[in-house]
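PROTEIN DESIGN WORKSHEET
SECTION A - STRUCTURE
LENGTH: 151
TOKENS:
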């Protein structure tokens, strides 16, 4: 797998992000969907990566800098045909390595509390992420799970 810094302009990537947004909307009420849209992923405080296996786009992920010591993992998504093939594991390790390279003290994330997000929560827990309260602009939400990992 190759992880590439990306500018979110390739049509394949835009389609994958729309798949991600659609999936979030299927499993969460509108007020609890915190996935970034394409415009937000192009903001200066966000760094976005795409994941490729040969010529196939298999996933994506981003880090939004909350402050110089704290980053947020955003837009982690594996293409449906490539789920459970190690894409998310490889990408999450890349994002953690990037957080350390940036000298962040911690990386945090928000994911869903519903059954559809169980695999994601298990992945994050397996990498040492712990439950935490809302961070950044988030507020308590029964549909959200907040997690953080000290680096």
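SECTION B - SEQUENCE
RESIDUE ASSIGNMENT:
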């Amino acid at each position: 797998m190759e992880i590439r810094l990306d500018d979110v302009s390739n049509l394949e990537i835009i389609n994958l992000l729309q798949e991600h947004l659609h999936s979030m909307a299927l499993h969460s009420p509108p007020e609890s969907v915190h996935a970034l849209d394409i415009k937000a992923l192009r903001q200066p405080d966000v760094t976005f990566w795409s994941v490729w296996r040969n010529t196939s786009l298999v996933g994506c992920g981003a880090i939004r800098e909350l402050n110089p010591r704290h980053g947020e993992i955003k837009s982690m998504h594996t293409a449906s045909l490539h789920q459970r093939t190690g894409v998310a594991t490889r990408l999450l390790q890349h994002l953690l390595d990037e957080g350390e390279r940036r000298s962040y003290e911690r990386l945090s994330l928000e994911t869903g509390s519903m059954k559809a997000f169980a695999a994601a929560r298990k992945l994050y827990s397996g990498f040492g992420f712990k439950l935490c309260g809302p961070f950044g602009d988030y507020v308590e939400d029964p549909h959200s799970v907040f997690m953080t990992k000290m680096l």
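SECTION C - NOTES
The CA atoms of residues 18 and 151 lie 31 Å apart.
The chain has one domain: 2-150.
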